[in-house]
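Posting for a labmate who doesn't have an account.
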Amino acid sequence: MDAFCNYYIRVIVNDWDEDLYKANVDNNLLP
């Protein structure tokens, strides 16, 4: 159960990081 929870949290964090990265690219905040 812990392994599943850790995987689920990792997926959520990865998705959030990806969305944040895309938002930064859209705003030209990243090179």
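Reply:
Got it, the structure tokens are right above this. Residues 2-26 form the longest helix (25 residues).
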